[in-house]
Write a structure and sequence with these properties.
Strand content: 25-35%
CATH class: Alpha Beta
Largest sheet: 6 strands, antiparallel
CATH topology: Aspartate Aminotransferase, domain 1
Order of helices and strands: HHEEEEEEHEEHE
Number of domains: 1
Strand order of the largest sheet: 1-2-5-6-8-7
Distance between the termini: 18 Å
Oligomer: single chain
């Protein structure tokens, strides 16, 4: 079985964020990193070449495949700042209704501009996601 490609590394999250080419995306990513670090109490860690993660959880699929993933993460992509909230959004509808403009995937929140969203709501989303998975093992079928 192949090893996961996206794993925690000793690369500098600060250096990665400082190197984001677009000044606005860089500022948003640094501000989001600071917000997430404050909410979670976890230090930012590089996962692979483009994800800054906070905390971690272990997953185990019915197939036997296992791995680790950040409890909460961010990545400054070209089109949007992406926040990875491993819990998904099934129980977060009331918070999302108050967040401001966003797009989402199963467990990804896409933000065009950090200043356009409610930071208190974002803090709550991040905190809830982090507390529910950090340090746990999730078994998936």
């Amino acid at each position: 079985m192949a090893e996961p490609k996206t794993t925690a590394s000793s690369a500098s999250a600060a250096d990665f964020l400082d190197a984001v080419p677009d000044p606005r995306r860089r500022a948003d990513a640094i501000a989001a990193c600071d917000l997430i670090a404050e909410v979670t109490g976890a230090a930012p860690v590089m996962w692979g070449g483009s994800i800054v993660g906070f905390g971690a959880y272990h997953y185990r699929y019915a197939s036997g495949r296992t791995g680790d993933w950040p409890a909460v993460g961010l990545s400054p992509r070209k089109a949007a700042l992406v926040l990875y909230l491993s819990t998904g959004f099934d129980s977060a509808r009331s918070l999302l209704d108050r967040l401001g403009p966003y797009k989402m995937g199963k467990s990804c929140l896409y933000l065009k501009r950090l200043d356009d969203v409610d930071h208190d709501v974002l803090r709550e989303l991040v905190g809830n996601a982090f507390r529910s998975v950090d340090g746990t093992t999730i078994n998936s079928n």
